Amino acid sequence: MGDPAETATSAPAQVRLSAQDWADLRETMRILGLGTTSEALREAIRLLHREARQVQAAQSIAEFYADAEPPLPVTDALVTEADLAAADRAEW
Predict the structure, then answer these.
(1) Which of 21, 23, 25, 51 supports an S-S bond with 17, CB 3.0-4.6 Å?
(2) What is the pLDDT of residues 35-81, one digit of tens each?
(3) Which range of residues forms the domain containing residue 26?
(4) Would you say which domain of life the source belongs to (predicted)?
């Protein structure tokens, strides 16, 4: 039937971290207000998965267009140099 973890609602995992990775994780947890190591690692996995999907999409676009230049988004043509200069001058 396969790996039981694939059908479970959760599965245990172990990870070995270097001292620097552990320090970085603890600092990240503090900054983001994450209460547990498990919570932090789940969030890290979600972010890593999102990045992997973005890489996959970029690769798919590159394969589709092959050697041709992909078109720019329609909205790019609507923004003028004057618009960009006005945005640079704007105060927030």
Answers:
(1) 21
(2) 999 999 999 999 999 999 999 999 999 999 998 988 878 777 788 88
(3) 17-89
(4) Bacteria
